[in-house]
Specification:
2 domains, 74% helix, MetI-like fold, two-stranded antiparallel ribbon, 1% strand, globular, 333 residues, mainly alpha
C-alpha cells in the first residue's frame, strides 16, 4: 500500500468516527432530558432490589402483618380469623400485669440511659489520653470485647456470679464487710443485677462511639483554653460537651431503643427455658418479655401483637421527644 492509499484509509476512518459522533449527538438531542434521569433511577432501583426484597420479607411484611392481626382474633394453630377491632387493646389495657411491665420497662430505661451515657463517656475521657498509644489500643479492645460476646452465654456466667451461696458478687460484698444479697432471688435486687449485666455487655460499644466523637474535637481549642487558665471541668463543660452533643444524642437514642427492648439477658438470668422468666414475683417482667410470654407461652398471638404495637408507639414517642430536645440542645458544626 502506498502512502497515498494509507492517507485515504485514515481519512475514511476519521470521517466514520465523525459521522458516528454526529449520529449520537442527534440521538441525544431527540431524547428528553428526563429520560436519562429515569434510566439512572431504574438502574439504581434494580441494584437495590435484592436488599429491598430482604427488608420487605423479614421486616416490612412482618410489621404490617403484626398490625393486621392486632385487630383480629388470630392463632397460628387455627385457620379461623375473626375481626374484633379494638377488643385486643381493651383487654390489654385492663390487665394489671401489662401496666406493671410498662412501669418496669420505664424504670429499667430511666436508670440505664444515664448510667450508660455517663459511664461510657467517663471511660472514653480516660482513654482519650492513650488514644494513639499501644496501651490505649489494648484497653479499647478489652472494653469493647464484652459487646461482641454472646449475650446468652455471658448472662449464664452472670447467673453464677450472682449466686447467693457461692457467687463472686457476695464474696466481694463480704470482703468489704457488707451484707450479702439475694440478687436474682430477691424482688428488690433482681432487676439491678440484670442492669449490671446489661451495662457490662453494652458499655464497650458506647465507649467506642464517644471516642470517635472526642477525636473530632479540635485540639487547638482545648490548648487555647488551657493557656487562658481554664480548668478541666470548664473545658469539658464549655468546649468538649457542646462539640460531642451529636454523639451524645446518638448514644441516648440507641440506648433508649435497646434498653426498652431488652429481652435476652432478662429471659436468661431470671428463668429462661426452665420457667419463671420475669421473676421473682414479676419484678423483672418488662414489656418485651411479656410480649414473648403472651405469644409463645400463653398462645394469645393477637394480644401479643397489640402489645408489640403499643411498645412500638412508646419507643416512637420517646424518639420524637428526644428529637425535639436535640433540636434545641444539640450543636452541629
Amino acid at each position: 500500500m502506498t502512502s497515498l492509499d494509507s492517507v485515504k484509509v485514515i481519512d475514511s476512518q476519521d470521517q466514520s468516527l465523525v459521522f458516528e459522533e454526529v449520529i449520537v449527538k442527534k440521538r441525544k438531542r431527540f431524547l428528553p432530558a428526563s429520560f436519562n434521569k429515569i434510566k439512572e433511577r431504574l438502574v439504581a432501583y434494580g441494584l437495590m432490589l435484592p436488599a429491598l426484597a430482604v427488608f420487605f420479607a423479614f421486616f416490612y411484611f412482618p410489621a404490617l402483618f403484626l398490625i393486621y392481626i392486632s385487630f383480629f382474633h388470630w392463632n397460628i394453630f387455627s385457620s379461623q380469623t375473626k375481626f374484633v377491632g379494638l377488643a385486643n387493646f381493651k383487654v390489654l389495657f385492663n390487665q394489671p400485669l401489662f401496666w406493671h411491665s410498662i412501669i418496669t420497662s420505664a424504670y429499667y430505661t430511666l436508670v440505664m440511659i444515664p448510667a450508660t451515657v455517663f459511664l461510657s463517656l467517663g471511660i472514653a475521657l480516660l482513654l482519650k489520653e492513650g488514644f494513639t498509644s499501644r496501651k490505649g489500643g489494648f484497653w479499647r479492645g478489652a472494653i469493647f470485647l464484652p459487646h461482641v460476646t454472646p449475650i446468652v452465654a455471658t448472662s449464664i456466667i452472670w447467673v453464677w456470679i450472682f449466686n447467693p451461696n457461692f457467687g463472686l458478687a457476695n464474696f466481694v460484698l463480704k470482703f468489704l464487710h457488707l451484707p450479702a444479697l439475694g440478687w436474682l432471688q430477691s424482688q428488690h435486687w433482681a432487676l439491678p443485677a440484670v442492669m449490671i449485666d446489661s451495662l457490662w455487655h453494652s458499655l464497650g460499644l458506647y465507649v467506642i462511639i464517644f471516642l470517635a466523637g472526642l477525636s473530632n474535637v479540635p485540639a487547638q481549642l482545648i490548648e487555647v483554653a488551657r493557656l487562658e487558665g481554664a480548668k478541666k471541668y470548664r473545658i469539658f463543660r464549655r468546649i468538649i460537651w457542646p462539640l460531642i452533643s451529636p454523639t451524645t444524642f446518638f448514644v441516648v437514642v440507641l440506648s433508649t431503643v435497646s434498653t426498652w427492648q431488652a429481652f435476652s439477658q432478662i429471659y436468661t438470668m431470671t428463668g429462661g427455658p426452665h420457667g419463671g422468666a420475669g421473676g421473682p414475683a414479676f419484678s423483672t417482667t418488662t414489656d418485651a418479655l411479656l410480649v414473648y410470654q403472651t405469644a409463645f407461652i400463653y398462645e394469645h398471638f393477637s394480644l401479643a401483637a397489640a402489645m408489640s404495637l403499643v411498645l412500638f408507639l412508646i419507643i416512637l414517642v420517646l424518639t420524637i421527644i428526644q428529637k425535639i430536645i436535640s433540636d434545641r440542645r444539640v450543636f452541629y458544626r
